[in-house]
Amino acid sequence: MNYKDTLQYMYALLPMYQRIGNAAFKKDLTNTQKLCEFIGNPHKHLKMVHVAGTNGKGSSAHMIASILQAAGYSTGLYTSPHLKSFTERIRVDGMEIDELFVCEFIEKIREPMEEIQPSFFEVTVAMAFDYFLAKEVDIAVIEVGLGGRFDSTNIINPLVSLITSIGYDHMDLLGNTLPEIAFEKAGIIKRNVPVVISQTQDEIRHVFENKAQEVGASVFFADEEFVLHHLGIIENMANYRAEHDGNSMSFPTDLLGEYQVKNIPGVLKVIHLLNYLGFMITDPDILRGFSCVMPSTGLRGRWQKIAENPLVICDTVHNISGIDDVVHQLKTLDFDQIFIIWGVVEGKNPELMLSCLPADAKFIFCEPALPRAMKAKKLWDIATGIGLEGEVVPDVNDALAKARTLATKDDLIFIGGSNFIIADLKEL
Predict the structure, then answer these.
(1) Tens digits of per-residue pLDDT, 381-404?
(2) Could you report the per-residue pLDDT of 311-329, keeping only the tens digit for each?
(3) What backbone torsions phi and psi does residue 290 show, to the nearest 5 degrees?
(4) In what order do the strands lie in the sheet with 95-96?
(5) Distance between CA atoms of residues 275 and 281, nearest Å
(6) Among 12, 76, 97, 178, whose Cα sits 20 to 30 Å from the Cα of 208?
(7) Which of 223, 260, 306, 309 is nearest to 66 (CA)?
(8) For the whole model, what pTM was predicted?
(9) How far is CA 58 from CA 42, 183, 312, in A?
(10) Residue 123, burial from CB neighbour count under 10 angstroms (0-12, 13-18, 19+)
(11) What is the number of other CB atoms lying within 10 angstroms of the CB of residue 282?
């Protein structure tokens, strides 16, 4: 099979969470273990960093990878979901996985795959491990897909684990309270493996401390060690100052979302621990890594400006805590009128999400191009029910074109609600 045929085969055969939702999520690591055993357990021969959390895990994984690359280490990076191309999920030094390797891997595991009947995610995890071993990476950064305890990536034994901020998302699978959700995320904490918590949240601190104590892992609350100050955005770079142990480091980053202030302490602590474990990552490496996260790793869709006059910003924000962060930053911008293009998938709480957005915005409701999408008309019905003003334009690109006909050069257009809305943007 060629690459196109291979992808069609994978999409047709394998349950995919992004398309069908909960039916593709299995609270069991057996399938991933069987697949990896068939290919020689490549993960057991790799040095890794494991990253979980509700918000910020993708950004953090990319920042860590960028810094490691800047330090000269061959770095694997596994993330999900992809925005434009399947190959975005698996990268080495920022370069996407070879299409030929994808074809050869699926052919290699075709027989056990049809017997085991794994999910799409389980197969891609095994593929990533196999690719990173084949490329002889020095270290790989592995982002959890969903949860942690039963996530397919959780068969690894990393050098360091990182858990970013915890919020309300995937509650039907992970629990209805923050402690319940944190318990699932804490499932990545391994025996004698240090774990970094990016953001101290008093309500759930004990969950991480208890799990770490249970398995003999050291736990570090990064924001208590690294005090971060956001210094503003200058020439399309966000500037920060980090204070640690009486020392201070100032640096710019091309990730412009102010919510990165919650993620950067965790990234810095992970780098600090890697140095303790024998890596050699200097302050200049850290500065270079932060300054070019997007070009060095391929990260897109995090508070990304895609046009001016009017200003157009998109963000993959898709849960309540993320929306709160985005709205806070929107309030710092100077504009006459805000237009919000919004689309979501089923399984969220659209009424609560919409109630967190600016009530004086003019909304255009759209829908992602996948089976799990919430229809734009249904979203519009919910929005009008809580007094929001808007219209329906199902395709996000048509919605953007419509917003541009309504906006002046002094207005702001914001696009969000789902990773998959951002994925459908042609201008990204």
Answers:
(1) 999 999 999 999 999 999 999 999
(2) 999 999 999 989 999 999 9
(3) -65, -35
(4) 95-96, 90-92, 75-78, 139-143, 48-52, 160-163, 195-197, 219-221
(5) 6
(6) 76
(7) 260
(8) 0.95
(9) 23, 20, 22
(10) buried
(11) 11
